[in-house]
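Summary of Year 1 activities. Much of the first year was spent building the evaluation harness for sequence design. The harness presents a backbone, in tokenized form, and records the residue chosen at every position. We chose the following record to illustrate the format because it has been used consistently in internal testing since the harness was completed.
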């Protein structure tokens, strides 16, 4: 039997959806000023943190929770703009290694300070330390429930 959301639960869910949509749109607009999309940034951040700026495509996909097809199409767009390189893995001809290019690093370095400032202005600075702790706790619970299936 379906457990429908109560009015209060529905309002909470809709408030979360509205916040996420508007936050995503505002962050996307900020990145667009640097010629980046949110998907570009989502992939560039883990690449920039990886040793030598490179990850196997399957590991990058797992990091950002994307399927192979979506990752492949996005990487093709990014490679065409010189942000990343793709090459066969040395130890597995079927595997692909993705590397953040120097151009990609430069674009990321230019975009990151404004992006972080926008995240701070729109999100972080609007929470008390207690609200921040509560959000971290809630995020961990939801993530755990998803991962446990």
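For this record, the design step produced the sequence shown next.
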């Amino acid at each position: 039997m379906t457990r429908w959301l109560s009015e209060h639960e529905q309002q909470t869910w809709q408030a979360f959806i509205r916040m996420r949509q508007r936050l995503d749109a505002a962050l996307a607009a900020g990145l667009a000023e640097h010629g980046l999309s949110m998907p570009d940034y989502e992939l560039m951040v883990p690449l920039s943190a990886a040793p030598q700026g490179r990850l196997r495509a399957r590991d990058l996909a797992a990091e950002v929770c994307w399927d192979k097809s979506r990752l492949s199409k996005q990487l093709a767009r990014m490679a065409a703009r010189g942000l990343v390189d793709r090459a066969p893995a040395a130890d597995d001809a079927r595997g692909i290694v993705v590397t953040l290019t120097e151009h990609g690093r430069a674009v990321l370095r230019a975009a990151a300070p404004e992006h972080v400032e926008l995240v701070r202005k729109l999100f972080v600075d609007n929470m008390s330390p207690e609200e921040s702790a509560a959000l971290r706790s809630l995020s961990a619970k939801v993530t755990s429930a998803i991962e446990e299936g």
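The domain at 36-132 is CATH 1.10.10.10 (Arc Repressor Mutant, subunit A). Quantitative recovery figures across the full test set are reported in Table 2.
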